[in-house]
Amino acid sequence: MTEIVEGQGSTDWPAPAPGAAPVPRMVAAQAGLELRTLLRNGEQLLLTLIIPVLLLVVFSSEALISFGRGSRINFLAPGILALAVMSTSFTSLAIGTGFERRYGVLKRLGATPLSRSGLIAAKAVTVGVVEIGQVVVIVAVSLALGWAPHLTAASVVWALLVLAAGSAAFSGLAMLMAGTLRAEATLAAANLVYLVLLGIGGVIFPLTRFPAGMRPVLRLLPSGAMSDGLHSVLQAGAGLPGRDLLVLALWAIAGISLAARTFRWE
Amino acid sequence: MTTEPAVEISGLVKNYGPTTALAGLSMRAERGQVTAVLGPNGAGKTTTVEICEGYRRADAGTVRVLGLDPVRDAKALRPRIGVMLQSGGIPTSAKAGDYLRVIARFYAQPIDPGLLLAKLGLTESARTQFRRLSGGQQQRLSLAAAIIGRPDLVFLDEPTAGLDPQARHATWDLISGLRAAGSTIILTTHYLEDAERLADHVVIVDHGRLVTEGTPAELTGTQGQLRFRAEPGLDTASLLAALPPGSAAKESPAGAYLIELAGSVDPQLLAAVTAWCADQGVLAQSLRIESRTLEDVFLELTGRELRP
Fold this sequence. Notes:
The structure holds 2 protein chains of 2 kinds.
Chain A: E1 5-6, E2 11-12, H1 23-40, H2 42-61, H3 72-102, H4 105-109, H5 116-144, H6 153-180, H7 183-200, H8 215-218, H9 222-235, H10 242-262
Chain B: E1 7-16, E2 19-29, E3 34-38, H1 45-52, E4 60-65, H2 74-77, E5 81-84, H3 96-104, H4 113-119, H5 135-147, E6 153-157, H6 165-180, E7 184-189, H7 192-198, E8 201-206, E9 209-214, H8 216-220, E10 223-229, H9 236-241, E11 247-251, E12 256-262, H10 267-280, E13 285-291, H11 294-302
Parallel strand pairs in B: 3-7, 3-8, 5-6, 6-7
Antiparallel strand pairs in B: 1-2, 1-4, 8-9, 10-12, 10-13, 11-12
């Protein structure tokens, strides 16, 4: 850091000494700013933490919906984990990025030494950190509510893999929307899609309760694949959810590559 | 120190659909100078600056910024330039001090953010979110972000737009200070006073072309004026006869006399006027010698009709 020397009544500015900081420092600084902005934003906290926890508490304590056999919390916890990841990597990322684009924030960053890949990395770090926080809180609340997941080393790895793949799939779709639609349209669409996927994503209504003809289609959506994968691993104790991971990977590849092609920075 | 200009633009063409923004613009900006790009709304100022910053590609023509191609050499160029956009660019819910500290972390040897905030009168606002700052404070924060990385070359797009007189003066001082420290500054403005106060070199563009360029003195000094006040109804024909050839004299309004001369007013003209006044027993009051203002030149070259 260079000090500005106060001269006699005038200011002596430091001579030019340009240079970029190391990439990890830039990415960490940008991710820190995004995280602080996110945590200060009340609506974002409502979306990413309060709503999932509320759904968990309300639907596990009252017999509002019949989940079939098994305890309510054992069904709910995996679905709410999927919902939490969706709220951060899709809704929150799309809205945040959409407004950054609208206010010229992305454009302005384009003239700093932080490259576009650095910015994407910072966003990935931000999304990842928030999701880790969400998973910790939701797992803790669920355990307190009596959640008894199928727990082995393998099931934890598969569950984390499903969350990561789901996060990648939803992030790609979020960037696709944020980079092409107007910020207001992104805001509306991201919230709408969140609600629709909450309804048909196997989060609070089991996919088995939908008509037989619809189930395969719902399992091909990223929300359905994520909740189905988590249910099979954590509730049913199944092995690697290959089909669900494949669906999520395909969504991720399609979303990210389309976003990369169509993203408009201003 | 190389003698290569900071910015060299030649034959720049840029169309947005059917609209021509730049129609073969050529200009240069020397290192260590303040270059002001003037022009009416829609003249192509922002497009020019944004091509230099690497935001847009020109349809034709060449651009060299610090000897580099702004798009191809973007990675090498970005740390060396500072950019202030015409509006926006800062996350609306970020706090002023937090934002500036983050931008500082992008550079190897930044100016201390706290000191920079203090210099720009933003210390009190360091914990205020961007959207709650006044227009002038937002402009100053944007300016701070443009210079915090100690760039060789600073692009300022309308840096004084919407500022109150105090903030304008602070901005002028800052730009002069940066220049004195060795930075090159390119600013677009339609406040002619900015250019008169700051610019070593003025470039006037209109309809996507260079209209004229030069130092403020070169642009304004081609015609001189001498004005004085005295009793109404003096004999201007007799006055004219006493002046060097090529002069003009008129009274308008009553009691205000204007003498114009091709070229600058020189001591001989002044002596001739005062000698004539002494001869006539006239006391010339408020006598002053003026050159045209940049505004006169600007309106003459770009017309008086309103722009969209």
